[in-house]
């Protein structure tokens, strides 16, 4: 973290105001240097998680400057085998493992486990996603590790938590979408449930792990002792639907699938236009009036069915048909121009390939060239960390840093 070194504190006891200014200048210099290297440049994290949730958490911290040691089996973790592949590497693996070091260890071997424990002894954070109980059987449980490293921050990620009801339940993003109600509330009315495209539960669980670790690192500045953190995918899944959960608590009813629409807002959905589709998001009364004026339905807001949001939601199908009939009279480009000038939120329906080719993505510098010898065309997606992020580096090859880390652990010198 960014604590002032002990010798800086001595300056406060010297020559009064000058010493205090010197101390402030030194502290500012230390902070500026740390920011250039990444705010967590003096933090080491040992990561034995797999696939998405844990690796996403540690990638965020790595791009904030932490040294992240990714420990894998000799044949690599599961995400390395997920197609498609680019330059011989899984695109899933490439997506969530930037700025890390890879150490290959066979944790079925006693010597490898002891090597891992020695690495953890000299680390700040340990993060694991074993099935509850597995870490303890391996000798990597919280109680054992904090005896060796009393300042360790220990973070566990599981599907349903370590309690008696959840500890034995398997967990994948799709299962949690089903459990939480996300899957059943997604899709079109009268059609089979639809899985949402991104693995949002895995990724948001990773974000919650990151937030907990960052808070624990901040707490460590004010208090000593180990800290035990816990992230469960079930928690993340329900929090992704926080406003729908509140509706269910209030009404006792589950939200129904709305297609591209939203359960509490209308019109807020995809419409057919003359040459394709257009997303229109008239999210309040003012925007609805502006939309109606622009499409030639200026009197529609005075219709008792549509005069407020509750009425529009109750009568969304009739409203959709009326608005869509007008939108079909012109092209998507023309409607985007007209609605944009009128201040009505509307957007083109893109595929992902269309989106990343849009000039706005280039303006935001979201796609970063990161060539390697094996893949000179490699590009990575920039995390939205702003000026706090370090330069992205390619995900490591399997076991790329094993020798470096094991030798430095044996010598007692932490590599830079």
Protein architecture, described:
The protein has 416 residues and is α/β, with parallel strands linked by helices. Helices cover 41% and strands 13% of the residues. The protein has 18 helices and 13 strands. It has helices at residues 6-10, 17-37, 53-63, 91-95, 110-121, 134-137, 142-148, 173-180, 200-220, 233-240, 242-251, 285-294, 309-314, 316-327, 332-341, 352-357, 359-363, 402-411, and strands at 44-47, 67-72, 85-86, 89-90, 100-104, 125-128, 153-158, 227-232, 268-273, 276-281, 346-348, 367-369, 379-381. It has a six-stranded parallel sheet, sandwiched between helices. A three-stranded antiparallel sheet has the order 9-10-11, covered by helices on one side. A two-stranded antiparallel sheet has the order 3-4. Strand 9 and strand 10 (276-281) form a beta hairpin. Helix 3 (53-63) crosses helix 9 and helix 8 packs across helix 10. It starts with 5 loop residues before the first helix and ends in a 5-residue tail after the last helix. 31% of the residues are buried. Mean pLDDT is 91; it is low at 1-20.
């Amino acid at each position: 973290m960014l604590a002032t070194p002990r010798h800086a504190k001595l300056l406060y006891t010297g020559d009064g105001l000058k010493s205090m200014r010197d101390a402030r200048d030194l502290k500012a210099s230390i902070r500026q240097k740390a920011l250039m290297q990444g705010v967590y440049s003096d933090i080491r994290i040992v990561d034995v998680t797999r696939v998405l949730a844990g690796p996403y958490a540690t990638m965020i911290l790595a791009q904030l400057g932490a040294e992240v040691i990714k420990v894998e089996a000799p044949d690599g973790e599961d995400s390395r085998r997920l197609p498609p592949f680019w330059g011989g590497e899984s695109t899933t693996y490439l997506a969530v493992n930037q700025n890390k070091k890879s150490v290959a260890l066979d944790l079925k071997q006693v010597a490898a486990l002891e090597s891992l424990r020695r690495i953890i002894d000299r680390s700040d954070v340990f993060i694991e996603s074993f099935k509850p109980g597995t870490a303890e059987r391996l000798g990597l449980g919280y109680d054992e590790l904090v005896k060796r490293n009393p300042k360790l921050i220990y973070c566990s990620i599981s599907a349903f938590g370590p309690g008696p009801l959840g500890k034995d339940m398997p967990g994948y993003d799709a299962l949690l979408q089903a459990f939480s109600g996300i899957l059943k509330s997604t899709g079109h009315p009268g059609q089979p449930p639809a899985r949402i495209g991104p693995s949002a539960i895995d990724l948001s669980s990773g974000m919650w792990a990151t937030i907990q670790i960052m808070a624990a690192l901040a707490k460590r500045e004010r208090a000593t002792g180990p800290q035990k953190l816990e992230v469960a995918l079930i928690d993340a899944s329900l929090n992704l639907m926080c406003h729908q959960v509140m509706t269910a608590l209030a009404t006792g009813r589950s939200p129904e699938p709305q297609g591209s629409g939203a359960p509490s807002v209308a019109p807020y959905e995809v419409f057919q236009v003359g040459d394709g589709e257009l997303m229109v998001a008239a999210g309040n009364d003012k925007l609805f009036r502006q939309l109606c004026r622009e499409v030639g339905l200026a009197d529609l807001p005075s219709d008792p069915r549509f005069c407020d949001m509750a009425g529009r939601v109750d009568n969304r199908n009739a409203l959709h048909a009326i608005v869509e009939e007008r939108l079909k009279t012109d092209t998507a480009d023309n409607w985007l121009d007209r609605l944009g000038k009128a201040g009505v939120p509307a957007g083109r329906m893109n595929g992902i390939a269309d989106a990343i080719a849009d000039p706005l993505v280039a303006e935001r510098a979201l796609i970063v060239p990161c060539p390697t010898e094996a893949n000179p065309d490699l590009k990575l997606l920039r995390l939205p960390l702003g000026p706090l992020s370090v330069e992205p580096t390619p995900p490591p090859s399997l076991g790329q840093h094993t020798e470096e880390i094991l030798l430095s652990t044996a010598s007692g010198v932490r590599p830079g």
